[in-house]
Specification:
Largest sheet: 4 strands, antiparallel
Number of helices: 3
Distance between the termini: 75 Å
Strand order of the largest sheet: 1-2-4-3
CATH topology of one domain: Dodecin subunit-like
Order of helices and strands: HEEHEHE
Radius of gyration: 23 Å
Oligomer: single chain
Helix content: 40-55%
Strand content: 15-25%
CATH class of one domain: Alpha Beta
Number of strands: 4
CATH architecture of one domain: 2-Layer Sandwich
Length: 128
């Protein structure tokens, strides 16, 4: 008669659960970018959001501003978007669209020309 030993099965289950939990924790940390906030004179602040798209960079910067202000309202004083892509912004879009079409025809997928730091959105703000 064969017996299944519970400690051995329990150890494997515990190890698998620990690895899965650790992987989820690390991926969650990587997917929530942090934009440092610098305090300037006259109760103003500055932060820069970085992302692969202009909208996501703006969202990252404004999320940091909201965290800084807490329950107070964010008042944007000045903002600037900077593109740091491999190609210029317009050419990058065209190449991406052509690559997506060609990739869908041949089943190879589209090339990834964008990087996580293609756009920088710098915002100066105060809390009110």
């Amino acid at each position: 008669m064969t017996m299944i030993t519970m400690p051995r099965l329990g150890n494997k289950l515990l190890a698998s659960t620990s690895i899965l939990t650790g992987a989820l924790f690390l991926s969650a940390c990587q997917s929530t970018p942090s934009s440092p906030v610098i305090q300037r004179a006259n109760s103003t602040y500055e932060t820069t959001g970085i992302a692969s798209t202009k909208v996501r960079a703006q969202e990252n910067a404004l999320e940091s501003a909201k965290k800084t202000c807490g329950s107070r309202q964010v008042i944007v004083l000045d903002d600037e978007v900077k593109y740091n892509g491999l190609l210029d912004e317009r050419a990058g879009r065209v190449v991406g669209q052509v690559g997506a079409v060609v990739g869908s025809i041949f089943g190879t997928g589209s090339p990834q020309l964008s990087r996580d730091d293609d756009y920088e959105y710098t915002v100066s703000f105060r809390c009110q």
